[in-house]
Design brief:
Distance between the termini: 35 Å
Order of helices and strands: EHHEEEEEEH
Largest sheet: 7 strands, antiparallel
Oligomer: single chain
Number of helices: 3
CATH superfamily: START domain
Structural class: alpha+beta
Helix content: 25-40%
Mean pLDDT: 93
Strand content: 25-35%
CATH class: Alpha Beta
Length: about 160
């Protein structure tokens, strides 16, 4: 995990197990991100086109109706096929906050459970960076959102198997 200040706000942790090896799960999560990220989890409008630059320093972005690009996350670390670390630039209202000092951090670990199963673990932290007014709102939103996100990911992995 990158530098993070500890606070009294509990980290968010969720996981899902998928029926592919860690290498495939890692690459699907990162490189196929636009195909599996939930349609309703957008900053402009549901179903807006997404993009990803799947390398350290790369970004996750959304296209608005006029074709403008809006970066909502930055890829801080990539260690294929073990983990990725992402700076999440959304505030408590689901809007992009361009100040990198306000970004929360999530790490995704891909834990092999044999040749054809991987446990995908998410830990989302650094909510205190949102400031006193918004930290708990962001934390609670992510705690509710990650199960949906991981469920979509697992469903798309399952579809890719057939």
């Amino acid at each position: 995990m990158s530098v993070r200040k500890r606070s009294d706000i509990e980290d968010v942790r969720h996981h899902v197990t998928v029926r592919v090896d860690a290498e495939r799960a890692y690459h699907f999560f990162l490189e196929q991100f636009p195909s599996w990220w939930p349609r309703d989890f957008r900053t402009t409008k549901p179903g807006s086109k997404l993009g990803v630059d799947p390398r350290q320093g790369g970004r996750f972005y959304e296209f608005d109706e006029l074709g403008g690009e809006h970066t909502f996350a930055t890829l801080l670390a990539c260690d294929a096929p073990r983990h990725i670390e992402v700076a999440w630039h959304l505030n408590g209202f689901g809007r992009i906050d361009p100040d990198p000092e306000h970004a929360t951090i999530f790490e995704v670990r891909f834990v092999s459970e044999g040749a054809t199963r991987t446990r995908v673990e998410v830990e989302h932290t650094a909510f205190e960076r949102q400031g006193t007014k918004h930290a708990r709102r962001v934390r609670n939103g992510m705690d509710k959102g990650w199960p949906t996100i991981l469920s979509e990911f697992a469903a798309k992995v399952e579809m890719a198997l057939t």
